[in-house]
Amino acid sequence: MSRRAPEFDVVALGEPLVQFNPLDPGPLSQSRLFDTHAAGAESNVLIGISRLGHKTAMITKIGTDELSRFVLTTLRGEGVDTRWVVQVPGMNCGVYVAQRNYPIPDKSDVVYYRRGSAASTISVQDVPEEAMSLTRILHLSGITPALSNSCKNASLHAARLAKDNGVVFSFDPNYRKKLWAPEEAAPVFREFVALADIVFLDRGEASMILGEDLARRGRGPVLRAIAKLGPGTVVLKEGARGLVALKDGKLYQVPAFTVPVVDVIGAGDGVVSGFLSGMLDEKDVRTCLQWGAASGALVVMRRGDFENLPTPAELQNFLTSRAGREEFDLR
Length: 331
Ligand code: KDG
Description:
By secondary structure, the chain is of the alpha/beta class. It has helices at 41-51, 66-77, 144-147, 149-164, 182-195, 203-210, 219-227, 267-280, 285-299, 312-322; strands at residues 8-13, 17-22, 34-39, 56-62, 80-87, 94-100, 108-113, 135-141, 168-172, 198-202, 233-237, 243-247, 250-254. The protein has a nine-stranded mixed β-sheet with strand order 5-4-1-8-9-10-11-12-13, with helices on both faces. It has a four-stranded mixed β-sheet with strand order 3-2-6-7.
């Protein structure tokens, strides 16, 4: 079957959110001043990829409220195609509030106000089949299946459609403990991982998926165990210890960049957008990892999830400034 040349490099389905972020770190009960940011894991990834020069599109449902308008204009302003963003009259978009760096420095917590959001009503019928003939990569996160049964079915449907159309399927479990229990999430993650070509995950998520505590296992065995479930490429996010990838049986690793941490939320999405952009530019795996590590590092240096995601020139500038200053931890 001949395929039309893909119009998009990456399409994602998910829930864009509005983030309220306190100007000062501390308990939310003491926070009075907030700024707002468009956010949501999948839209962060698309914005990052778009900034690095690739064509992206989002599939989602938002409302007709002012915050939905804010999300929509942000996506459009960042060059993300919104032809498959449906505005549902009378509905709202989801919101969350971040509690930064308190009580644990360099860790953030979130409070969601997203139940009943427009995106939580996404169902199989909302997944446009044509999207899968128009993209090279479909990216999903494990957040969307946690929102509702219909969102879970829609996500699975999208992943299967991608496979049927020869589209590369990228998956990040993005486990969110405030949305579902590990026992509920684990079998769902396994279904997506089995379909995926590329998986991005951390050790906690790998442990959930494999049903064993992998805290002390070496990186190679963890990655190989996930790869055995299906994906040809697995990227393990090890926070301050850097990134490791397994591709076609070979291991690659890069250290994390040490930067001042203002807000860690969104760093993982930066890793995904940097890595996938490298892949789209046909870079070697180590460069893809470096782009991921650099994008993640830049994100944590300010409030908000995507504002610091780099253009190609900013990425090169950052990498050049860091050359020779990498701290390797190759355990
Ligand atoms: O990865 C960052 C996301 O977690 C954040 O933007 C909010 O999408 C979000 C979620 O569902 O937690």
